[in-house]
Amino acid sequence: MSGGRELEGRAAIVTGSARNIGRAIALELADAGAAVVINARSSAEECAGVAAEINAAGGRAITVMADVTQEADAARLVSAAHNAFGRLDILVNNAAVRRESAFADLAHSEWREVLSVILDAAYLCAHAALPRLLASGAGAIINIGGMSAHTGAKNRAHVIAAKAGLIGLTRALAHDLAASHITVNCVVPGMIDTARGRSAAANPDHHKGHAPLVGRRGRPQEVAGLVRYLAGPGARYVTGQTIHANGGVFMP
């Protein structure tokens, strides 16, 4: 955390922020002065812990348990932010599931579930948040992408399709919302050292063929710092971009 207060007086929603990268983003935005809504579908205790950490440090945070694949829940999430903080300026679409299934075994129900959490939820949250972001005068939407959408990978057709869709959504919304002073960007983490990433079952096969040039995995805070910049006043000329944080493991 840098200790600046460039987001003082602003409010943010971070979906999927109970742990890992989402948690780091929430803490980073709070460190910059933003009031933050912590969200997850089911990790209530972990969400409460993130909010408590922010509030104990002198920030402002609330938790809202919501399934952002559901239109009513996305609307409720946005309403909760406005009711608590009187505004909404920043939306970070981080919620995701990352499963591996051979395409021959990939059921349509699993395909739809993954696309719903990653892509449909980003649409639903952005759509629900739009009136509040318009009122902000300097709104920011930041979508969290995935490196495999750029490199390709086995057994991840559903995840890759959804994350690639986020790139298209980012570019489309950048065009649609620029005149309303809303920036829209996509941050793509590489190989990040998270609890999920350290587990053998969740360490995807395609990571085995990649090695960051910097000689280590990234830290969640290093992704969060980029999100902080894109949410802040110094990035108002940056929109429609896909920005990678991967230690040089992939160079587009």
Sheet with the most strands: spatial strand order = 3-2-1-4-5-6-7
What would CATH call the architecture?
3-Layer(aba) Sandwich
Give the structural class.
alpha/beta
Low-confidence stretches: 197-201
Q: Sheet bearing the most strands, described?
A: 7 strands, parallel
Instruction: Using the CA coordinates, give the radius of gyration.
Output: 17 Å
> What is the CATH class?
Alpha Beta
Order of helices and strands: EHEHEHEHEHHEHHE
Q: Remind me, CATH topology?
A: Rossmann fold
Average the pLDDT over all residues and give the rounded result.
Answer: 94
**What is the strand tally?**
7
What is the count of distinct domains?
Answer: 1
End-to-end span in angstroms? Answer: 28 Å
Q: Which homologous superfamily in CATH is the superfamily?
A: NAD(P)-binding Rossmann-like Domain
Account of the 3D structure:
- This protein is of the alpha/beta class and 252 residues long.
- It has a single domain (11-244), classed as NAD(P)-binding Rossmann-like Domain (Rossmann fold).
- The chain has eight helices and seven strands, in the order E-H-E-H-E-H-E-H-E-H-H-E-H-H-E.
- It has helices spanning 20-31, 44-56, 71-85, 108-136, 148-151, 157-177, 195-198, 220-231, and strands spanning 11-14, 35-40, 61-65, 90-93, 139-144, 182-189, 242-245.
- The longest helix has 29 residues, at 108-136.
- The radius of gyration is 17 Å and the shape is globular.
- Residues 197-201 have low confidence and may be disordered.
